[in-house]
Amino acid sequence: MKVFNQKINLKQVLIVIALLLISNSVKIFIFYLIRLKGDIDFYSYYHHITILIFSIVALLSVLVSWRLIKKIDTTNTILKFVKVYILSFFIFISIGLIIDFILWTTLSSQTYDFMARFLNMLSVAFAFVDIFALTSAFLYFRQSQKITLALEETEKEKAIIQSQMLQKNLEPHFLFNNLSILSGLAKKKPEQMDDFIDDFSDVYRYYLNHGKKQLAELKDELSFLKNYMNLMEKRFGNAYQLKSNIENTNGFVIPCSLQLCVENAIKHNKASVQNPLFISLSRENDRIIIKNKLNKVDFTLGTGTGNEYLKRQYQLTYNKDVIFTETDTEFIVEIPLISQI
What we know:
Blueprint: E1 2-3, E2 6-7, H1 10-37, H2 45-72, H3 78-107, H4 114-127, H5 129-188, H6 193-210, E3 216-217, H7 218-236, E4 240-244, E5 252-253, H8 257-268, E6 277-284, E7 287-293, H9 305-318, E8 323-326, E9 330-336
């Protein structure tokens, strides 16, 4: 259950409602007895003013009670609400008796009968049970909402920190993978090293310029992906081929998100020039779909860093989900497009 967009425990709400019903039933009965046997004149201005004064006292009693209970009870259970409710009742009677004594001795010539006035004040306290109950419930639920908000903020901050740590891990991850390619070229195709270094400089420059930004234009990301595939071609030839069917390049994505998906496809699947792996890119409304056939390598040291980073970033920043789907024959990633910054 949510109240003003905040989660509220339904069981606690029902308990408070039950207490309100019980206390107000007592109040109605007390009013009935006062009407029949009491000496309060419901048409007297004096009694109206007195009721106003005691209403203010009832409210202040709850506020004082809340502060006292909050110091000794740091929990937020329904028992705390009950403690505040009961303590405010007794604080009200204590202050009420003092006020009643002052008014009685000032305005009346009769002898002050403490027991009679105490019973009278007890009936007055029951007449104000709705103030005790409603104010206590308001303070209780307000604190519940604050605690819920604080917990949600803490969890969000924790997730953001974890996401930032993942992002920091991506840079050495990206650098290490490409240095491995360079190492492979040095052994097998040293004549291609200069071209690879030039291409790698362009790709890494984009990575550094955009890696810490929140969003990149889809057209820029596709261009970056094309340059990245040029690097892969120098290492694997045409073993891994990218087929893009995207014509509408409007929209934004998290920088390097498409590259991470393509990199995972290359890392986790075997391919050769004779039996290439085709990685397809397409657009369906507000999502980019990356697909590849499965031809898994026997062993990989994958840590899932890239996928975890994408999921967290899209969820935390834009409340959108990156969907990973694996069937018997293919792996599919759905990247949500952001329409505007």
